[in-house]
Amino acid sequence: MHSENLDKIQGQVEEMFQEIRNTNKAIPISPGQPCTADHLQILVKSVPIMQINMLRIFWPVTPSILHYEEAPCKYLSHLIGHEGEGSLFHALKTLGWATQLFACEVDWTSEYSFFKVRINLTDAGHGLTRINRFQIVFSRIIRNNESPYLFILDEIAERMQEVLGFLFTYIQLLQQSGVFQWIFDELSSICETKFHYQDKIQPFSYVVDVASNMQIYPTKDWLVGSALPCKFNQDTVQKVLDELCPTNVRIFWESKKFEGQTDKVEPWYNTAYYLEKITKSTIQEWMQSVPNVKLHLPASNVFIPMNFSLIDDKDKNGLPVLLRKSLFSRLWYKPETTFSIPKAYVKIDFNCPLAVNSPDTAALTDTFVRLLMDYLNECAYNAMKAGLHYGLRLSDNGFELTLAGFNHKLRILLEIIIQKIANFEVKPDRFSVIKEKITKAYENYKFRQPDHQAKYYCSLVLQDQASPWTEAFDAVSHLEVEDLAKFVPMMLSRTFFECYIAGVVKLRKWSHILKMFFITTQPPFADRFLLPSQLTNRVVKLQEGKKYIYRQEGSNPSNENSALVHYIQVHQDEFSINIKLQLFHLIAKQATFHQLRTVEKLGYITSLSQRNDSGVYGVQFIIQSSVKGPGHIDSRVESLLKNLEITPQSNVTALIDIKLEKHKNLNEESMFYWREIQNGTLKFNRRDAEVAALRELKKVELIGFFDEYIKVDAPKKKSLSACVYGSQHLKEMESDKVKVVTPCIEIQDIVGFKKSQPLYGSLKGGVS
């Protein structure tokens, strides 16, 4: 990849690599399947590090690469991994036994491949159950002519057996039903639409993908690869389907509950496990034990787009415009002027102050969002398969909805989601499952990598409304159905809606939704408007000339790694300072990696990145290390800054080129504009303005900026070091504290510290 023409690039490559001789060696190939009979019909129980209950089921199968136009594994993944009504996952979810199911081909070569099904179990899906064994034992007695005195009417069994029984029952359903051309045609149509209207990606990634395809596929398919299944072959699919049989299976079951029940340890990661053989008749018994839940093939997908027409928008301005505003909402619209692709992007921020005003409400909001996604799953799954994606996530002031993909059916999905929010009710059985899922997620927080922990502590210090995850974890344990049922209407009643719509969107067809939120005096569920002060995100303003340090023991005692985030807070959004900070980042990024990673070998994870907290800009050095503690690493960062040479000339040109590079696709463009809206900066012409400022920048100005804000002992420097001490460096924590001298400030209590500090004024808050 290069800015020169292809002939020149080819000449350069040939010149640089001409010394490499062609020895005509064949590519190493491992013929045949790697699994012998000893490796099949096994159940392995292992103890994971994190709090998970997971089943992973593998079958060695015929590689799809040999039949990539017929796509047998794509067909089977589509059905076994389906999440709609009648599917395997829908049955397990309805029973409260599973939270996730995924099916696909993995670890393939031209000689062998594996088909994998992964099921994340709930505690109920993992636990024990009483099953009626009369029919199972009776059939065995008749078959084997055994004594009737062996009847067992009731027996305790692991529910995992029923989960696997469901899986094999569904596979048997597929085997007996046969292979349907309409399902293949629907899958082929979806793949063709996604391929022909795929978003533009980075040139580097595209070149790598095509180069990889050139080693695998014939010339005609170098650009396509296996993306377009086009030949329906019932026998090919049926052959792979028949390979998903009990005699061919490998089952891996991971759970903390197996601690003390294992007898082996694998040599690489010291994972404790227990292995047992299983028979075909055992699996048949599992199949006979499953509850009477009707499984069936999926219906046709109503979200498959049919209309790919574009809009000839007369407004070629190309910047978002504010269409509507009120005390309850704002609506931004960006017409499609660039990409000529039938897609749209919608973002709605539900700004709900009640959602985050305490650990209790934060836990309630988290539960609400996860339950909402749980309720939407069957519908949203079909939309996702058809190229229409949605996401719900917690935000600093509530929650955020994103929709992106083909525009034809996007409005339908949005209306379904809004109706689910408006008519939200708490289903006790699903509440229990989601509460368990959140609890495990919090329990696994302590297993996060140290660099993630350090970044978390940095954010906790800086963000005014952020509270420790431990408080939310404690709150979750006390949540009841009634708490959430009372909270959600109250939270939604005090909501400000900020919406951004972009792409190929005919607004007149969206009149119902637009009228609901932005044209009526009062939108649904909101009955009181918010004050401007309630729409703000505030950031702690560190004092000039001060260095703040927060130290914490790593939360996972078995992790020897330590980590440091060395953050330098610079300014609130301003073009002239923005470009100097960005230029410093560009200059120092390579020097940071070279000195701290390559020369000093402090840690594999070593980076310098820009940071933006609600329009407050800075940079952060992130290093994770097993060889040195945070105190030593912090001193090496400051040593780097002492010796750094500022050379802006070539870097100015490089930064201008980066800023002039056009957005690759609608999602990338929309995220750029949405950040402006979310931060309250609204500088939609930011890149052009910053390029103009860069062209006027003088070297002396950049050096002056560095001397004033960045270098060690700079008069306006404000830094925060978040230090996480791994088990190997824990003894250094106390000695590092002793070394602290003025003007260093040791933060002992984050909550108390934030209450004592000034805050930056918010760039967001007004509705006009």
From TrEMBL:
Tell me where on the tree of life, at the top rank, the source sits: Eukaryota
- The residue ranges of the Peptidase M16 middle/third domain are 195-472
Q: Name one GO biological process term.
A: proteolysis involved in protein catabolic process
What keywords would UniProt list here? Hydrolase, Metal-binding, Metalloprotease, Protease, Zinc
All copies of the Coenzyme PQQ synthesis protein F-like C-terminal lobe domain together span 586-674
Quote the Pfam families the UniProt record gives: Peptidase_M16_C, Peptidase_M16_M, PqqF-like_C_4
Q: Which PANTHER family match?
A: INSULIN-DEGRADING ENZYME-RELATED, NARDILYSIN
Query: Which family does the entry's similarity section mention?
Result: Belongs to the peptidase M16 family.
The protein in question is named Peptidase M16 middle/third domain-containing protein
Question: Which organism encodes this protein?
Answer: Brassica cretica
